[in-house]
Specification:
Helices cover about 30% and strands about 25% of the residues. The chain contains twelve helices and 16 strands. Strands 7-8-9-10-11-1-2-3-4-5-6-12 form a twelve-stranded mixed beta sheet. The protein is elongated.
């Protein structure tokens, strides 16, 4: 018996007839059997490809069927193509896509069909594959470089701030899903003093912030601010408690599918591997609100992002400010050394963590009360300021904006009449002993108020009779709550909503 034609074998591969299956020729002919096996393999590949593309592809299916209805086929292949279109219609209705290998004319037609379908569904499929891959991730690390560029209306672009940010994260186990997971991040920020109104060394880039933070799953977290020489402890980080503008929150937005692919960028090599690029739009979805389109380069082998970048532009009267963000060296599902998320407090820095113990809080109240008694109802004339007002770390803070317990102690001694060179007899005086007893409270205030983001003092405008004015505030033990001390030294812990009303000038971390 003569060998089957390509179209006959294509018909058999598509499953359009059962009659040929019974032919002994297929079993005996190596050439026909091999050709049919190749066609069946291609059919399986196309079916597998569609299974990846199948979710949420109603629009793509409609476009495909419209394309099929308008497709002009060669005259000699009309019957095969009619059957193919009919078969595809039925298979797509069942969310499946199958096709076989054909002769030259029908192979070209099959590839064209696949191209039509891919053009309409590839972006959705790429997003779906990326989401599927990212959702399975159990760890990652990345490096980020940010630039703030100032573009004057009549000048050249100038980088006025540069920031590096690195982070690594490991997913919690099933028993700790309420926590964010193990997280360590470090940020360094440099600026040009001239851009912030500083006269000295205006062309020299200066380190303005160096911060490291570590959040072990379910354990107290440690934040170290090296440029301010202090650290503090916080509660464990819940899974949904990241600031919306945090880079990790942005990665989670990608993970949760809040964006959509609007354009393909082709391919380029990233870290020695070929990556495929896409432009994602997040519209007004948090946390990319206000940012431009996101450019992402994906490893086609793993469907995981390798690079990610986006810009934010603010128009001002003096010109345009452009924040450029670029994430590189993104690594997924990696192993970390055992001490990667260890929390060890630096021995040479100051612990600014506010107290929770009633005894310690009572010491703070006692120190402030004694000062008010000695000064006729006043408090130390200090008003802490927004930390952004201090842009040059080499410049000392104005004494009136810094709570120095030693200076306050000397002032209290003077108010009580203990002035001049130290006198050994003072230690026998009850008043002097009373002043010495409040040193622990002054020490607490000195340490807590080093952190001008998480504590504040308004001694220049609040007096002891002010029951409804906040004199001193700091973070409380319960996340999202703040401890406030009124002018009459009554204290309470309030939620953030009330705190914002009581201290509207506070700078929130």
């Amino acid at each position: 018996m003569a060998c089957f034609t390509q179209e006959q074998l294509a018909t058999l591969a598509l499953g359009l007839t059962d009659g040929l299956k019974q032919s002994a020729h297929i079993a005996q002919c190596d050439a026909c059997r091999a050709t049919l096996a190749d066609m069946l393999g291609l059919a399986d590949q196309l079916s597998t490809a569609h299974m990846v593309l199948s979710d949420n592809h109603a629009a793509s299916r409609a476009q495909l069927m419209a394309s099929l209805s308008n497709f002009k086929v060669p005259v000699h292949s009309t019957s095969i193509w009619n059957q193919l279109a009919s078969t595809l219609t039925a298979m797509l209705t069942r969310h499946r896509f199958a096709a076989g290998g054909f002769g030259l004319s029908t192979v070209a037609g099959a590839l064209l069909l696949l191209a039509i379908f891919s053009n309409s569904a590839t972006r959705l499929a790429a997003m779906d594959r990326m989401l599927t891959a990212v959702r399975k991730v159990t760890s990652y690390s990345f490096n980020e470089v940010d630039h703030m560029v100032f573009l004057a209306s009549n000048g050249k672009p100038q980088t006025i701030r540069r920031e590096t940010y690195s982070a690594c994260w490991r997913a919690p186990d099933e028993a700790n899903r309420e926590w964010l997971g193990d997280l360590h991040a470090e940020v360094k920020s440099w600026h040009r003093p001239s851009a912030y109104g500083e006269a000295s060394n205006s062309d020299v880039e200066r380190l303005a912030l160096h911060l490291a933070e570590t959040y072990p799953t379910g354990k107290p977290s440690l934040i170290v601010v090296y440029t301010e020489s202090y650290y503090f402890w916080t509660d464990p980080m819940p899974a949904g408690d990241l600031p919306v503008d945090n880079t990790i929150a942005k990665l989670r937005a990608v993970q949760q599918g809040q964006g959509k692919i609007v354009r393909e960028l082709g391919t380029k090599h990233v870290d020695g591997r070929e990556a495929r690029g896409y432009i994602l739009s997040f519209d007004e979805a948090v946390p990319f609100r206000g940012d431009g389109p996101v450019e992402v380069w994906v490893d086609p082998q793993t469907d995981l992002p390798m690079e990610l970048s986006y810009n934010r532009t603010d128009e001002k009267q003096e010109g345009k400010y452009i924040d450029e963000h670029c994430l590189t060296d993104i690594r997924w599902n990696i192993d970390f050394p055992p001490d990667q998320f260890a929390t060890i407090a630096p021995a040479d820095l100051v612990n600014t963590t506010p107290p929770n113990d009633k005894k310690d809080i009572a010491q703070i109240i006692a120190a402030l009360k004694l000062y008010a008694d000695l000064s006729g109802g006043h408090y130390p004339p200090i008003r802490t300021l927004d930390p952004a007002t201090k842009t040059d770390p080499t410049v000392e803070v104005d004494p009136h904006t810094r709570f120095d317990g030693k200076l306050i102690l000397d002032e209290m001694r003077n108010l009580a009449g203990f002035s001049g060179p130290p006198n050994p007899t003072w230690s026998q005086d009850p008043k002097y002993q009373q002043i010495e007893a409040v040193i622990p409270g002054l020490d607490w205030l000195s340490r807590i108020l080093l952190n001008r983001v998480r504590a504040g003092f308004f001694g220049t405008e609040v007096q002891s009779q002010d029951r409804d004015k906040v004199l001193f505030w700091c973070t409380a033990a319960e996340r999202g709550h703040w401890r406030i001390f009124y002018g009459d030294l009554q204290t309470e812990v309030v939620p953030e909503s009330k705190f914002k009303q009581l201290v509207p000038t506070a700078v929130f971390p």
